Amino acid sequence: AIVAAAPGAPVHVLLDDEEAEHLPGCNLAVRRRALEGIGGFRAQYRAAGDDVDVCWRLRAAGGRLRYVPGAMVWHHRRYQTRAYLRQQAGYGYAEALLMKDHPRRFGMLGGARWTGGIYGDQSGGEIESGDIFHGPQGLGLFQGIYQTGPRCWADWLGGLAWVALAAGLLVCGQAAAALGVFVFSWLLALCRARSLPPAPFRLTLRERLTRLALCWLQPMVREGARLRGMVETGAFPGGWPEWDTAWPAPCDHRRALPAGELHLWSESGPRRGRFLREYAALAASQHDAVRVDDGWQSFDVELQPDAHFSPAVITTEEYHGRGRCLLRVRLLWRASSAAWLVLAAVLLACAVTPGIKPLLFLCCAHFGFRQHEAWQRVKTVMGRIRAAPGGREAE
User: Fold this and answer.
1) Same domain as 386, residue 239
2) What's the mean pLDDT in 261-280?
3) How far is CA 43 from the centre of its chain?
4) Which range, of 36-45, 202-211, 238-247, averages the lowest pLDDT?
5) 215-233 burial: b if 16+ Cβ within 10 Å, else e
6) Sign of CA dihedral 285, 304, 298, 395
7) Does residue 236 belong to any structural domain of this protein?
8) How many domains is the chain partitioned into structurally?
9) In terms of domains, do 243 and 290 share one?
């Protein structure tokens, strides 16, 4: 029964609450027409990996995987530790076969790269950092926070690397250092064991130690089988994959400075959508790069997003009944970490060397020009909307 609490079991990978990137084969149902459209299952996947290959090919062909929590098949886990380790070795070898067919879906460390979130070997602890998905213009339903960091940093440090390092130190006569590496590898296994979800039953001391041993052995067995498969099949990872657009890039966490606000009163319904469309169209007509909020950002439209210092607008609309609305438009200046470092360096240089104060004056003049240019864009679009029936600038 301890195998049920060990890591490495099949799990589903979700893009959102309904769409999946991967579904385990034990709980997977595929329409016959869709399966025939991709050529069916591939014969080389005899032990494992067939479900991953089918899911990836179905999505590449334009298909979508629906996640239905209630559609469940009871799937028995391995009853013995030896059978569990054989299963993990089969998973590792299957990863090498998948790497041969889908090299770009594997990172340089050899592990598969997923776009969605992996549900399974993780605890439900507090989220240390993350991003809120609020939907474009803040209109997304069921807004939630998503953790962006790795689920357990020990996963990146386990495996055969520590065994190879300890063996190398022993060969070089550094027994004490080799022992330290060996102990550290067990500490990493302990960290991984603590990150697993609680077992559905109370574990005895012997069972806890057995699970700890499996946390130490599982990555080595799986990685060893994967390396053996890579040598036999000639597979090699293709680097970082091209992420699917179904999972937007998280927020870049730039610092935003508010630079003023304008209001627009309307007597004939909302104007927010029209303002944002015309603002983006005006910027594009002036050959400025435009970035629209994908649901993760703290702005609605950003101009020149690749610059270290870029203008953006964020809007909201108040409803006052009978079709009357007040549109609020706030101008933001989003600065990267490099821009803040440059600004701090300029201010420090001006404080230490008064002779270069003209440099600060030039920076302020440049910012003032860009501020005026950004406000003119906003006022131009507001003027167009105000000229339409029912729209006028608020006092």
Assistant:
1) no
2) 89
3) 33
4) 238-247
5) bbbbbbbbbbbbbebbeee
6) negative
7) yes
8) 2
9) no
